[in-house]
Design a protein that fits this description.
- This protein has 92 residues and is mostly beta strands.
- The chain is 9% helix and 24% strand.
- The protein has a domain of 50 residues: Ribbon (Pemi-like Protein 1, Chain: D), CATH 2.10.260.
- It is built from one helix and four strands; from the N terminus they run E-E-E-E-H.
- Strands 1-2 form a two-stranded antiparallel sheet.
- About 12% of the residues have low confidence.
Length: 92
Amino acid sequence: MSVFTRMSSRRAAHDHRAQSDIRSGNSEAVRLPKDVAFGDHVELVLVCSGDVLTMYSAGMTIPAMLERLALPPRPRAIERRDDEPLSERAGL
């Protein structure tokens, strides 16, 4: 997935710098260093606030979450609770 952003000329001393930027028409792509990259096929949310651009992972969609929840193996049998009545406890 390509991420198109706007580069700012002002950077803090502790920020990671983009390796390069690639222009295509009115868009600009930023190549992130490997240690801060998001990986392949990760949907990102971009939030602009003044001259600050924040990128973070969008997380899972509900269908993807349901698909992932269906993956764990199911138990062979489900234990039933005992039908014994519980005795009253003093002070409760």
